[in-house]
């Protein structure tokens, strides 16, 4: 991978921001010294300054010196941050990446100026281990800048470019989705305890089985039903269990949950 030549500012260095910074360095996309991390309480970033990252509490000063600016605060904190950094914005040299859910590119440009190039990115918490599913969208950024953002997030997982009107849907399926799959694994492990395994054994078995199922689809590039057909023999135990779950609304409840999460994700940010 060609190393990025400029400087990167990550404003609001919580889990997502910090994980991205680590991923960029691990993949040799950037050196720690090219990345500045900010948050209100800078003392929480001491470990990162020890590793060579720049740290600061001065968002505007950091933006003034940056080529890529990652907006990684909560949607509720975003307007205040945009007010702070607006005087330091240089649309000719900067690209802004927003990971705030429910906030459109035009929302951000309304605060920072219409010429500002904004790319939205929606990673999930598996970014911490380089296994994020990140969706990327824009309404005005150049192809070069979008490609750069894709390259950045490919250091921490898989990336799909989508239309911006699908970003709240991506939040539900990929970001909230982590919790849905975790809950399914947890439920499977509880089932394991009920049929005789110790809790730690049951969890290990459920986790590895779930990982195997996901990897089957990724590596074989097959459809879930194809793989299900291989496990379900006539009058067998697998189809009996599957059908019992379906009678109790397994697929239906997952679908309804994802739909509700998408509605909620679109309402996290207020424009005022």
UniProtKB/TrEMBL annotation:
* UniProt keyword annotations, A-Z: Amino-acid biosynthesis, Cytoplasm, NADP, Oxidoreductase, Proline biosynthesis
Give the record's GO CC terms: cytoplasm
Q: Where is the Pyrroline-5-carboxylate reductase dimerisation domain?
A: 164-264
* Keyword presence, Cytoplasm: yes
By sequence similarity, the record places it as follows: Belongs to the pyrroline-5-carboxylate reductase family.
Q: Copy the pathway line from the protein's UniProt record.
A: Amino-acid biosynthesis; L-proline biosynthesis; L-proline from L-glutamate 5-semialdehyde: step 1/1
* Organism field: Pedobacter ginsengisoli
Supply the Pfam families for this chain: F420_oxidored (PF03807), P5CR_dimer (PF14748)
**Which residues does the annotation say bind NADPH?**
59
Which residues does the annotation say bind NADP(+)?
72-75
Q: What does this protein do?
A: Catalyzes the reduction of 1-pyrroline-5-carboxylate (PCA) to L-proline.
Q: What's the chief localization of this chain?
A: cytoplasm
Q: So where does this one cross the membrane?
A: none
Q: Domain Pyrroline-5-carboxylate reductase catalytic N-terminal spans what residues?
A: 8-102
Task: Give the GO biological process terms.
Answer: L-proline biosynthetic process
Might you give the EC number(s) for this enzyme?
Answer: 1.5.1.2
* Protein name, per record: Pyrroline-5-carboxylate reductase
- Per its record, what are the GO molecular function terms? pyrroline-5-carboxylate reductase activity
Instruction: Tell where it localizes.
Output: Cytoplasm
């Amino acid at each position: 991978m060609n190393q990025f030549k400029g400087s990167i500012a990550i404003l609001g260095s919580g889990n997502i921001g910090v994980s991205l910074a680590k991923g960029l360095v691990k993949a040799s996309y950037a050196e720690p010294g090219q990345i500045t991390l900010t948050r209100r309480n800078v003392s929480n970033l001491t470990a990162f300054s020890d590793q060579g990252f720049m740290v600061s509490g001065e968002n505007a000063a950091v933006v003034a010196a940056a080529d890529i600016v990652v907006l990684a605060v909560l949607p509720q904190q975003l307007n205040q941050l945009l007010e702070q950094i607006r005087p330091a914005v240089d649309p000719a040299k900067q690209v802004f990446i927003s990971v705030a859910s429910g906030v459109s590119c035009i929302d951000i440009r309304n605060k920072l100026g219409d010429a500002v190039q904004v790319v939205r990115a929606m990673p999930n918490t598996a970014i911490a281990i380089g296994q994020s599913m990140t969706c990327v969208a824009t309404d005005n950024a150049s192809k070069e800048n979008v490609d750069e953002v894709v390259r950045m997030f490919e250091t921490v997982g898989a990336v799909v470019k989508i239309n911006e009107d699908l970003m709240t849907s991506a939040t539900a399926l990929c970001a909230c989705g982590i919790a849905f799959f975790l809950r399914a694994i947890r439920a499977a492990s509880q089932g394991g305890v009920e049929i005789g395994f110790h809790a730690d054994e049951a969890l290990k078995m459920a986790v590895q089985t779930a990982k195997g199922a996901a990897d089957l689809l990724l590596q074989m590039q097959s459809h879930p039903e194809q793989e299900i057909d291989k496990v379900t023999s006539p009058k067998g135990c697998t189809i009996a269990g599957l059908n019992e779950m379906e009678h109790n609304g397994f697929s239906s409840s997952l679908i309804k949950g994802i739909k509700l999460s998408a509605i909620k994700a679109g309402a996290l940010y207020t424009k005022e």
